[in-house]
Amino acid sequence: MALPNKVKKLLSDAEQLTDYRDCSHYFYKWLQNEFSKQPVGNLINARAEFIDRLLIKLFHVYDLAHEPDLALIAVGGYGRGELHPYSDIDFLLLVTEQPSEAICEKIGQFVTMLWDLNLEIGHSVRTIEQAIEQKREDVTFATSLLESRLLFGNHIEYEKLKAHILDTPIWHSDEFFLAKVNEQQLRHKKCHGTAYNLEPNIKENPGGLRDLQTIIWVAKKHFRAETLQELISHGYLTHEEYQELLECLENLWNIRFALHLAAGRSENRLLFDHQPLAADLLGFGSDGKASVERMMKRLFRIMSRVRELNQMLLSYFEQSILPESNEQAVVELDRNFERAGHQIKVKNPSVFFRREQLFVLFEHIADNPEITHIYPSTIRTIRQVRRRLLGDLQDYAACREAFLRLIKHPNGMGRAFTLMHKHGMLAAYLPQWRNIFGQMQFDLFHAYTVDEHTHKLINNIYQYFDKTNVNEFPICCEIVTRMDKPELLYLAGIFHDIAKGRGGDHSELGAVDAIAFAKLHRFSTSDGKLIAWLVSNHLLMSVTAQRKDINDPDVIKDFATRVKTERQLDYLYCLTVADIRATNDNLWNDWKNTLLRELYLHTQRALRLGLENPMDQRDQIRDKKHQAKQRLINNGYIEEQIDLIWSRFKANYFTAFSEQQLSWHTEHLLNCDDLSQPSVAVSNTAMHGGTQVFVYSPYSGALFARLVSVIGSKKAQIQHAQVLTTRDGYVLFSFVVLEVSGDPIASAQAQSIKRGLDQALADPKKKIRFKKNRSQRFKDFNIKPKIILRPHPRKDRSLIEIQAVDIPGLLTKIAEVFQAHLLHIHAARITTVGERAEDFFVVSNNEYQALTDEEQAKIHQALRKKLNAETE
């Protein structure tokens, strides 16, 4: 695409910095206006041409064009003639010898002018010897030289350099190939091995532009190919695959171009805040989430195709470039399949006319741990079969039998399942899986698309069966050893989120799908009901553990009543742990682990006692006291002193805490010089999954707000809070706090929190300051605080539930409203899920009664006003 004549004239006539800026501004406006009218390839070539003309003119302006020993060379993407609106401009100034001071000054002026024009440039000045030496040490630099292009200057020196790039022994084809494969593996690892991040990197993610460029780089180095099309003549690509790669490349270019325009800068990550505008620019519409979903599904499908083609082609290249790879032993697996090294290969592609053989292939992978990949020609065959399918593979009885054999296989849901997902076999088998492929999740805690989240969940369950993971999953690893039908757990995992994106309750819709699947695959009625129950209730345990007081016998009884049997509890616990861990790499921590474990053990005990014979609260208190007292006596404390401390506490204190917490609190109070004064204890080590903070003080309605302010100002996250009063007018605060990373508080930070709390108790008027660092990405979710007031089981209490973005100081703002309305806080459950806070408070009014309708209305209005102001 030729540049518009006006751009050429503006550039030709430019003399001052403002002239060049005006020309650039006009050109960028032209790019934006043309994006919806022309193929994107024309536009990225046009920007490269514009930069060519600009650099060459400035080369003349600063009298560098007359230096005979100097060559201006475009490298990297710019060398390919591909520049997106804000892509970096990489060039090499090649010199025959170290330049003089006068030339260095001219080069400095040239580069400074480019910076003044707000261009992102990457430049270097090197002799041929220096360039070759860096090429020897740096494969990235060697790669950029492969795509070099002479813009102006000494063509003889440039041709010498180009000859060295291809013909010298530096970076032989085999070394270059291995280096690029290793580079790609490291790049994929940084992206957690998946293309399906909700904010994908268009260049770096698996299936992104770099995967396409890796194919081109290897082809250039080994085959001297200048285009992908030349790989057809070399026998590595079919015409259909070549067209597919071109289509994928153009689509990725379109999305990256739109991303640059939306961000207004060089940006490769398709962040949430750029997705709506990018979708609109690409023609997917401007209807918010719906248009973003359409764009992202397209992107994830493209990345999946690119990744598969990349793997296939690199495997073919390996066979040509590394001859020893062809010398691997071939082992026959059956009459249709064989193993070549670490790859499985179909002997005759026509075997897949019997569709069940597709799953037999994956059965062999499950049978043979040494198989890690699928042979490239077999990948090609699978792709062809996929395209020719006229229905769902589950429609074939033989496929259903093979699929069931696979999910019941001890290794079937490991690498075999991963490869099924990667090569589209799950989507070909289950029509519902096709719907969740690339399905976005618009919240603040999921990091992956629905299908990739589910894939990770299945992988987590598979880890339970590996004895080396017993320290990480002690209860789960023990449960699965006695689990009679693990395949039911796997199927519940597959279906737990399969109805997302359809509207309605995805748990209930997924349960309906699970029942239909069970009937089609001839599961017993009881097995089908268990799968459906798990799908319908897959959030139950997580919600109960994180939102309710699991030390309350009534909570345990209600939960146990819904779970009904110990078998269902076992399945639900294993599913819940796998689900949370698959949601977000930063979401799981010891605190959540502890909550779920304690809920599991409490419920297991309740079920074993029998729901008709729940443990009496007095018996529970008696047991806890006995165990806590024994700990204290063993540490040298006197029983009479312990009883004296405990006589001040109400029964609810002993139900709220474990025997470990009871002994820790009591030991602290026994060591206090004056129990009439406030005191603070912060645990040196993690207890119940987090750092414990215990505050004992005379009662004050403003105290809760001050305490949470101090903890928040120390960049610690409160996970749980308990507020209890004593018989003699004192108040006990218990907090579980974590680092932002989810780890227990480091010892130095713990001491800082203690000092801050001591100061807050000693000087109630001292102001506590917060740094406001709210991320801009929050605005894209448009999450307004949700405030719900409802009755509490106790008639003199009310429950307030608040869901909001977890901004710094959020809990302090809530506490300030409570303080202004003279509310008494009796308990608080603080839950942070990703970047969303879900907080629950048990409160009463100033007369220690439940809130009246009028009080509820006033508090609701005050909270909404306060929190909306903070999150805007």
Summarize the structure in words.
This protein is α+β, with helices and mostly antiparallel strands and 872 residues long. Helix 15 packs antiparallel against helix 18, helix 22 packs across helix 28 (566-583) and helix 24 (506-520) runs antiparallel to helix 25.
Biggest beta sheet attributes: 8 strands, antiparallel
Main sheet: which strands, in order across?
9-10-12-11-15-16-14-13
How large is the radius of gyration?
A: 33 Å
Poorly predicted runs are 770-781
Overall 3D form: globular
Give me the secondary-structure category.
alpha+beta
Q: How big a fraction of the residues is strand?
A: 5-15%
Please tell me the overall pLDDT.
Answer: 89
The total count of helices amounts to 37
Instruction: Kindly state the percentage of residues in helix.
Output: 40-55%
The total beta strand count reads 16
Distance between the termini: 44 Å
Q: Which secondary structure elements does this structure contain, and how are they paired or packed?
A:
Blueprint: H1 5-13, H2 17-34, H3 40-61, E1 70-74, H4 76-79, E2 89-95, H5 101-116, E3 121-127, H6 128-137, H7 139-146, E4 149-153, H8 155-167, H9 173-190, H10 209-223, H11 230-233, H12 239-263, H13 275-281, H14 289-321, E5 330-332, E6 337-340, E7 343-346, H15 357-367, E8 373-374, H16 376-388, H17 397-408, H18 415-422, H19 425-429, H20 431-436, H21 450-463, H22 474-481, H23 486-495, H24 506-520, H25 525-536, H26 540-547, H27 553-563, H28 566-583, H29 590-609, H30 617-634, H31 639-646, H32 651-656, H33 659-670, E9 679-682, E10 691-698, H34 703-713, E11 716-725, E12 730-739, H35 747-762, E13 786-791, E14 798-805, H36 810-820, E15 824-833, E16 836-844, H37 853-871
Parallel strand pairs: 2-3, 7-8
Antiparallel strand pairs: 1-2, 1-4, 5-6, 6-7, 9-10, 10-12, 11-12, 11-15, 13-14, 14-16, 15-16
